């Protein structure tokens, strides 16, 4: 799946936190000194294992809990001071709205829309139809909520978040508990919203979700932010390595060093190094010319999984 033709990411920030922290009792901080920046127009994956502080951060962003320290800015306004102005422009899927099991999808949205004093009554039905259409539930709008599949329930929760136009969507594990079909539906809906210019902050413990849906990522580990930025930039930063397989690892390492390569390391079956700007063909030629018996040569570009493993020392669930 691709994320479609999204509008270019701007220099402005839809979310900016400074030194954001939350401590519960005497436990280590649930969120520790977070400087998170979500560029406007980005789909940012908020990636981290369970318990790393994602939900706590999201709840602070939305003003649902108070930070112990630090500041939050949403769409350029300080929170919670700017809440009345900003929150109508922010759709959130955090705990999921409380839907009534015996009401239809449409009637559930009617109840929620009626509870929102900032929306008018006259165009309520049109607004609800638009939101249902957006998430592909228009045909199933008359079914009772309890007859919905998990994917449909999640899409109805997204429809509730989309009852009015949003500049920012904050989604906490939106595909959790969904079957593959439901997961695909929700991910493709996120891609559509992003293509329309909505900034999305999407928390997940799934690396595959980040690589399929997101343009940016912020990596959480034990309450702290390990890295953030455009996926492409992070991957480029991870650095390639070249590997020479040889029965004479020391000689291979010597040839790589002589060529000026950095971070040369030997092991039992050869040597590796960072190639920098030196082209692979030049490296092979130099090693062979130096008389090193070469039995294999590889250029290795680390994948996202390896990159995050390096950042956190923990594997991520790559399924889904
Ligand atoms: N209300 C609370 N009281 C005490 N500790 C809490 C509370 N809420 C969260 N924590 C703790 O804060 C830490 C971070 O939890 P949080 O739910 O933010 O992580 P997460 O990354 O969202 O994980 P998950 O995906 O499991 O929700 C955990 O150690 C959790 O036990």
Automatic annotation (TrEMBL):
Belongs to the ABC transporter superfamily. Pfam families: ABC_tran. Transmembrane segments: none annotated. The lineage of its organism: Bacteria, Bacillati, Actinomycetota, Actinomycetes, Glycomycetales. The keyword ATP-binding applies. Gene3D superfamilies: P-loop containing nucleotide triphosphate hydrolases. This is ABC-2 type transport system ATP-binding protein. One of its GO terms (molecular function) is ATP binding. It comes from the Bacteria. It comes from Stackebrandtia albiflava. Residues 15-247 form the ABC transporter domain.
